[in-house]
Amino acid sequence: MNPPKILVTRRWPEPCEDRLRGQFDVTLNLDNHPLTLAELQAALRDYDAVLPTVSDKLPAEVFATAPLRCRILGNFGVGFNHIDIEAARAGGIVVTNTPDVLTESTADIAMMLMLMAARRASEGERLLRAGQWTGWHPTQLLGTQVTGKTLGLIGFGRIAQAMASKAHFGFGMPIVLYTPRPVAPELLERFQARQLDSVEAVLREADVVALHCPGSAANYHLIDAEHLALMKPTAILVNTARGDVIDNQALILALRERRIAAAGLDVYEGEPNLDPGFLELDNAVLLPHLGSATTETRIAMGMKVIDNLEAYFRGELPPNRVA
Ligand code: DGY
User: Fold this and answer.
1) How many domains does the structure of the chain reveal?
2) Can you give the pTM of this predicted structure?
3) Residue stretches of the chain with pLDDT short of 70
C-alpha cells in the first residue's frame, strides 16, 4: 500500500521533517511561503493529511472545495482558532493540536515581557543602539520593581499556571486570577493564589495583568476601553494569548495617554500586520509571536503532530484530537 500523502504548510525543524520523510509521502513547502486560500484548498483536495500551523488561515471557505481527500489536519500549535473547527468536522476531517510541550517556553516569554515592560528594557536598548547613552545617572529610565507586586491572570490553564509558579516562587508575587470554572483548592494553595469572581476584579487589583485565555469568539476584545480604565495607572498588561483578546485601538490610546504604565505584547490582531500605532509607543514592548520559539519546543511540537498522525493512520484515536 502507498504511504499516506502529507503536505506540510511551512518549514519544520529538521529532525521532524526527517521523521516525516521516513514514513510518509511528504511534500514540504521548500521556500516557506504562507499558503494562499487557493493553495490550502488544493491541499485539502490532493493530500491525505495537511499539517498547518497557527499562521495559516482555514476559515469555512477553505473547506468549501470538492472532493475533499484530506482526512486529518495535524496542527503545529496548541491554539486552533485559525481553523473553522465546525467546517472541518462537517467535512469529516479530524483536527489535532500540540498541547503541553510549549507551556514553559510560552510562560517564559510572558515573564520576559513583564520584566522588559516593567524595567523599560526595550527603551534602554534603543537608547544605546542610537548612540544616545550619555552615562549612568540616578533618574535615568526608572522602571517598576516587579518583586512582591500582584500578578493577575486572566485564564488559568497550563501556561497561566506555569507563569504563576515562576512569578510566585521566583519573584514573590501574590497571584490573583479569574477563570470561569472553580479552581481546585490544592492548586490555588500551591501558589497561594486567590480566584476572584470577575475579570474586572482582577484588573482592579493586579499590578501586572497577564492574558492566558483562548482566542475565541467569547474572548474577542475582552480587554476593551472600559476594562483598561479599571486597571491601575501603574499597571502593566502582558499578552501571549491571542491578539484579538485586546481591542488594539483602545490599548494604543491607553498607553499613549499613560492611563496604564506599559504593555508587553507577543501577539496582535491581524498579525503580522500590527497596528502602526504600536510602533510609536515607548511604553510597549513588542515581540513577533515568539512564545514557543525555542529549538527544544518547536521540535517537541513537530514530534507531537507526528505522534498524532501516526496514531490516526494506525487506526487509533489521535491523543490530541480537538475535532
Ligand atoms: C500556539 O501554539 O498556539 C502558539 O501561539 C505558537 O507559539
Assistant:
1) 2
2) 0.97
3) none
